[in-house]
Amino acid sequence: MSRPNSRTVPASEEALRALYGADGSILLDFRVDILQDGIKSKEVSLAPGGTVSLSADADIKRTCALGLYEPVNLLTDEIRPVMLVRSASGTGISTGTIKSWAQFDALGMSWAELEDAGLIFDSGGAMALEIAHEDPQWAEYPLGIFIPTTQKKVMEGAGVTYQIEAYDRTVILMEDAIDEPLYFAGGTSYLSNIESVLVSAGAASVVVEDEVQTILPASREFDIGTTKMDIINELLAEINFSPIFCDENGNFIIRKAETGTSGEVTHTYEADELSVIKWDTELEDDLYSVPNVFIAVCANPDMDTDLRSVYVNDDENSIFSTVRRGRRIVGEIYQPEQISSQSDLDAYVARQAYLRTQEASETITFITALMPTHGLNDLVQIVHPTAVGLFRETEWEMELSAEGSMTHMAKRAVGIYA
Predict the structure, then answer these.
(1) Cβ atoms within 10 A of the Cβ of 39, count?
(2) How many CB atoms lie within 10 A of CB 211?
């Protein structure tokens, strides 16, 4: 398992200027790579109408639906949509040989013009002309690696396309389940146990972004038929990590949960002269019956002691707090199977408080130009007549078209979780 930090590397300044159209119009293109055993085997053309989507709340977070002009092998192929952004233009020089007087006459140039253009004679005495031409540079943005699950042949007139629905590589964790009880001994590492499940499912590219030494406080057994995704996500939740997901390069990512206003702002959208945010923006509130008291209990007979933690939102800056509402509203009782320590349980219940409060916070839906640098749970700053502030992105969808747009859904970042 690899250990480097794989959080999205910021695009170069030149590439960002190209995305924002700072130097004029934005020139985009798309292609789809076909992969076999993780290695690119060929490129295929993309038919109009495709999309790539991400939903932070879904088990399989990244999906795509697209059309190709040739079929894929559902048993062996993976697909990788790639967005290409023209980021710079250079000048290339090519040399063309003039093989006949007819070609010479077709140029319509005098001897003086030919000499100025760099006319030369090669070793065989043939005339050759160096011609300058544009040499555009393209920045490539992979949008995910997907396993196709369905393929439908569509005939329209004389044309044929293959409409494909596909899921990111975490689908293998959802489809795979243990066929005998799975036992983890007390005192073993959470991360080592998670990695062993990933290996058993054939997850070849795993990046652990955050290392912890947390160990299982007692032995653990999972029943036959439990999916490997459920096993992994249950163990991750107990150490306050995000559910497993795949990034734009198809890596399985293991990282600590980012909540509230924690982490760096990854994108800023302002209504200015370089704005890529459009005006049809919507806001929605859902404030009904949001708890401000959260309780978690871990009572496992195999552990040395029972643990209990209570999180009270008494922050006067929070509209949901006991101070602002003047009463306590107790939510569901959370009962994790195991927790390594009291401090881990305190962090666990605080995270549940954040998730429940964030769920009911102000939601914004907005549309931008295509921005392929978005990932999972990005912290986005909005400066717009409709809304100003920090928002945690929960969903986005990109249209795979040079004329397409990108729809985002985000919730106002709440700061009750530290």
Answers:
(1) 9
(2) 9
The tokens describing 127, both together, are 């005339």
Per residue in 174-203, pLDDT tens? 999 999 999 999 999 999 999 999 999 999
* 86-123: burial string, b at 16+ Cβ within 10 Å, e else: bbeeeeeeeeeebeeeeeeeeeeeeeeebeeeebeeee
- Strands (E) across 143-205 are located at 146-156, 159-168, 182-184
Q: Which residues contact 228 (CB under 8 A, 6 or more apart)?
A: 173, 174, 176, 177, 178, 197, 198, 200, 201
SS3 content of the chain, % helix, strand, coil (to 5): 15, 40, 40
Looking only at the bridges linking them, the beta strands covering 330-334 and 293-298 are: parallel
- Judge contact between 408 and 366, C-beta under 8 A: yes
Rg (CA), the chain: 27
Check: CB of residue 252 under 8 Å from CB of residue 207: yes
| Contacts with 133 (C-beta within 8 Å, 6 or more apart), sequence order | 91, 92, 93, 94
The contacts of residue 160 (CB under 8 Å, 6+ apart) are 69, 153, 154
Give the integer Cα–Cα distance in Å for 338 and 307: 10
What is the reported pTM? Answer: 0.76
Residue of higher predicted confidence among 107 and 45 = 45
Buried b (16+ CB within 10 A) or exposed e, 280-289: ebeeeeeeee
